[in-house]
Specification:
Layout (H helix, E strand, L loop, with lengths): L4 E4 L12 E6 L2 H13 L2 E5 L9 E13 L5 E17 L9 E6 L10 H14 L10 H7 L4 H8 L3 H28 L4
Antiparallel strand pairs: 1-6, 2-5, 3-4, 4-5, 5-6
Helix pairs in contact: 2-5
């Protein structure tokens, strides 16, 4: 990890992982200003995971992907994509001369494209089979798998703090659990008949 950098900040109760696309509705004047700056200057900004379980003060570095809609009221619907993670050192009420907050952070420089190992790949293919999804030959990263499993925010915090080997085991256990749930749902359909 490198030295602190100062970035615009958007504290929210979400924690996204690299590669994830997140829709947001922007209505507060300070965050409308942040979106305007992100649109005009193509800047990244942080979404600090504002939750008591986030004792390590982690967040997601995001980039504006698109503005879906601008409202007459000044509000907007946008989509951001997570490009990295960060550790927060200090949160400021205002970023430089702006209305929105800022923060001093250390970027993790996550390799969001690191492919998964063979064992995880096998389980992920089984998971797709149960979902009736045709598997593509595209190389899928650990973060792609984690995003597809729709982990809860606390599970995501746990996941990012594990070593790569343990991250794979964690995801395999998540997949096994999901497959077990699908098996039980399948068995329940065989037992109960709708009238």
């Amino acid at each position: 990890m490198s030295a602190f950098i100062s970035i615009p900040m958007f504290p929210l109760s979400i924690f996204s992982l690299p590669g994830e696309m997140v829709p947001l509705h922007i209505f507060e004047p300070r965050y409308r200003q942040l979106v305007e700056d992100a649109e005009a200057r193509d800047i990244t900004f942080g979404i600090y995971y504002n939750n008591t379980s986030n004792t390590q003060k982690l967040g997601s570095l995001v980039k504006l992907e698109s503005v879906i809609k601008h409202y007459k009221t000044g509000e907007s619907d946008i989509i951001v994509r997570c490009v990295d993670l960060f550790s927060m050192n200090k949160l400021y009420k205002n970023h430089k001369d702006k209305l929105y907050p800022g923060g001093d952070v250390t970027l993790w420089k996550v390799d969001g494209f690191k492919p998964m190992g063979a064992s995880l790949k096998d389980y992920f293919e089984q998971y797709h089979f149960w979902l009736k999804i045709t598997h593509s030959d595209k190389v899928v990263s650990l973060y792609d798998v984690a995003n597809e499993l729709s982990l809860g925010f606390d599970e995501r915090l746990k996941f990012v703090n594990l070593s790569i080997e343990k991250q794979e085991s964690f995801l395999i256990n998540q997949i096994k659990y999901q497959i077990q749930l699908m098996r039980e749902a399948e068995n329940a359909r065989d037992i109960f008949h709708l009238n």
